[in-house]
Design a protein that fits this description.
The protein is an alpha/beta fold. It folds into two domains: 114 residues, no CATH class; 257 residues, 3-Layer(aba) Sandwich (Rossmann fold), CATH 3.40.50.1820. The protein is 24% helix and 27% strand. The strands form four sheets. Strands 10-11-13-12-14-15-16-17 form an eight-stranded mixed β-sheet, sandwiched between helices. Strands 2-1-3-4 form a four-stranded mixed β-sheet, with no helix packed on it. The chain has a three-stranded antiparallel β-sheet with strand order 7-8-9. Helix 5 packs across helix 6. The two termini are 39 Å apart.
Length: 398
């Protein structure tokens, strides 16, 4: 199966061969009486399944077991439902580069009650676009660690030439990016690949991939350190790939990915020439307690953890081109943090580019033309600082 609609967080148990730790997999039930059971849920995942194509078994106790027909029709999703109740389940089936189809499926007979979203026009439009070889790979990081990643190559990709490499990053405990699913920025990434960029994204330790307790908990009190270190280690590996132009490496991210972008640009300035940070958390002391204290502990008890975990601390190490974008009305990642970042960069006499979207929230989507303007800004900044297209082969850099 691919995945179900995400809404309610489930815990994850270790069954000896499965990965353990909190899971990011969510399942949405269309029946209110079933939603009430979500708090007792647990998820088991086979370690043999790739984290980006994981198979999930959800157990809702004290309910009776039923089997969900997946949209692919082959891999069952055993779960439990009230024995006497009709249980409609909105099931979204999608894969990387393929728009989703959403069916309303009844249990336990697995019949499609109604197709809620078919996406025929979008699927047809995407199918007509020029696309190069893309897919999932494993990238070696430090100490034998292998990170899951996806790569989008240009339509006319030639492995004997060297291409600019553009990373999409997130890397925090809240989400993964290296997933076999449709994503909102896929078409933008594809457009950049058509211009001659290779686009890639990796999941570091600490992301909610079902890869075991150690993988998940490595980031505790080391947010900003372990995750950026894994990304940088993978980037060093990829720099040795024959088609990577090491003089043209860029990175971008939003929210936690904006923070990751800052960390990579500040902590590893020799690896990344250009960064575009959208709605970042430069100072983790300013983010909300329910998230930050969960992974860093109390600031009163661990002030040094908060200091070294903040990109702001290393702002004076910036060498490359940096674009910072933020909505001044951000009600999630408060604008105050970006103001502190600006002050730190100014104090260190580091040049950078700044774009404020007045009174926009964390989505930076309010107001006529905002989304188009934002992605046009990102595109132009990338093109200005990292030239697209292949160049002749040159010796690989280490």
């Amino acid at each position: 199966m691919k995945h179900c609609w995400r809404k309610y967080s489930l815990g994850c148990r270790d069954n000896g061969t499965s990965a353990s730790g909190p899971s990011s997999q969510r399942i949405v039930f269309g029946n209110d009486s079933v939603v009430a059971w979500r708090a007792t849920a647990a998820v088991r995942m086979s370690a043999a399944d790739l984290p980006m194509r994981r198979t999930v078994t959800a157990t809702y106790s004290p309910l009776s077991v039923a089997t969900l027909r997946t949209a692919e029709g082959s891999t069952p999703l055993p779960l439990q439902k009230p024995s006497s109740a009709f249980c409609p389940l909105p099931l979204s089936s999608a894969s990387f580069g393929v728009p989703p189809v959403v069916d309303l499926v009844s249990l336990p007979d697995h019949k499609v009650v109604r197709t809620l979203v078919e996406n025929r026009r979008l699927k047809a439009a995407v199918a007509r676009l020029a696309r190069g070889p893309s897919g999932f790979v494993k990238v070696a990081a430090d100490s034998g660690l292998q990170l899951d990643a996806w790569i989008i190559r240009p339509p006319d990709f030639d492995s004997t030439k060297r291409y600019p490499l553009f990373y999409k990053v997130y890397g925090e405990p809240a989400a993964q990016t290296a997933l076999d699913q449709w994503s909102g920025d896929y078409l933008w990434h594809l457009m950049l690949a058509q211009q001659g960029y290779v686009v890639a994204s990796l999941d570091n330790r600490g992301t909610p991939a079902p890869r075991g307790r150690a993988f998940r908990k490595a980031i505790y009190q080391r947010v900003g350190i372990v995750n950026s270190g894994d990304q940088a280690a993978a980037a060093r590996t990829m720099r040795r790939w024959s088609w990577v132009d090491t003089s043209r490496v860029a990175v971008w991210g939003w929210s936690g990915g904006g923070s990751m972008t800052l960390n990579l640009m500040f902590r590893y300035p020799d690896l990344y020439q250009t960064g575009m940070s959208v709605a970042p958390v430069p100072d983790v002391r300013l983010y909300d307690t329910i998230y930050q204290e969960r992974y860093l502990g109390l600031p009163q008890e661990s002030p040094e953890v908060y200091r070294v975990g903040s990109p702001l601390t290393y702002a004076d190490k910036l060498k490359g081109h940096l674009l910072v974008v933020h909505g001044s009305g951000d009600d999630n990642v408060h604008y105050q943090g970006t103001e502190r970042l600006v002050n730190a960069l100014v104090a260190a006499n580091r040049p950078f580019t700044m774009m404020e979207y007045p009174n926009r929230t964390h989505c930076i989507c309010e107001g006529k033309g905002t989304t188009l303007h934002l992605y046009s800004l990102l595109t132009h900044y990338l093109e200005q600082n990292v030239a697209p297209g292949p160049r002749g082969a040159t010796p690989a850099s280490h």
